[in-house]
Amino acid sequence: MSDPTFERSLAALRWLIEAGADEAIAEEPVNRFAPKPASPRGGENVPSPPPTAFVRPTLSQGEGGKRAASAEAVSLAIVPGAARALAASCGTLGELKNALLNFDGCELKRHAKNTVFADGTPEGRIMFIGEAPGRDEDEQGLPFVGRAGKLLDRMLAAIGLDRSKVYITNVLNWRPPQNRDPSPEEAAACLPFLHRHIELADPQILVLLGAVSVRHVLGLTEGIMRARGRWELYQSAHLGRAIPVMPTLHPAFLLRQPAAKRLAWRDLLAISDKIEELGLA
């Protein structure tokens, strides 16, 4: 039988990693369970603990005097702090794509054939975010081009959309081996790029496909069946506004559970209504 205290601690650690915690608070780990030392006699001064140790990513001067983070200097030891600095240094979607192509701070990239960035057009102001590339996506370097992608195309067509009118990406830019779930460390390395991706694409509507996308974009841990079908808000300090978000079922899930397509259809109708309301049609 597992120790509930250990399980809670492990869950808290996973949450911190996914939230972007990347700084040590001392040179050496602290054993919080060790007995406290006895108080010194005579009011002697207790030595101060060692100063906080911070790891900062290296920044270099780019061409034309622009400040850019060096992807080559990134190591697994400073992710996701270095990932955040690298993502934040990108001022365009093209720069963000190039940063990901040169980024070596995620273990998933070592096993992937291609970096999968995005497809479609950000000018449509409607952004779809899936979970991770699959085999076909890894082969072609584009999101949603396999069986699930073909179904997504039909779903878009059902409400008068296609890839020339929407923008499509994933939480992860590299395929996990055998399509396994990513580790918290792997997801944490990709999240700064995803958040910057949203800022640079500047969508008016976000559509989250599947539970992984909902968890990492909105921070909701409830199942997708409970999260889907209701409008949420994504707060962006950089954009200075909140973006309406519709969580819905992933096309790959619909291929396995065709009866759930009726639920996805309700979500699509709600998205269509929002598109009309915001004048994006």
Shape: globular
What is the CATH fold-level name of the domain at 115-277?
A: Uracil-DNA Glycosylase, subunit E
Q: What's the number of helices?
A: 10
CATH level-four homologous superfamily name of the domain at 115-277 = Uracil-DNA glycosylase-like domain
How much helicity do the residues have?
A: 25-40%
- In angstroms, what separates the terminal alpha carbons? 55 Å
Order of strands across the main sheet: 3-5-4-6-8-7
> From the alpha-carbon coordinates, what is the Rg to the nearest angstrom?
22 Å
- Give the topology string: H per helix, E per strand: HEEHHEEHHEHEHHEEHH
Average pLDDT confidence is 81
- Category by helix and strand content: alpha/beta
The description of the largest β-sheet is: 6 strands, mixed
Low-confidence stretches: 39-77
CATH C-level class of the domain at 115-277 is Alpha Beta
Strand content of the residues, in percent?
A: 5-15%
CATH architecture level-2 label of the domain at 115-277: 3-Layer(aba) Sandwich
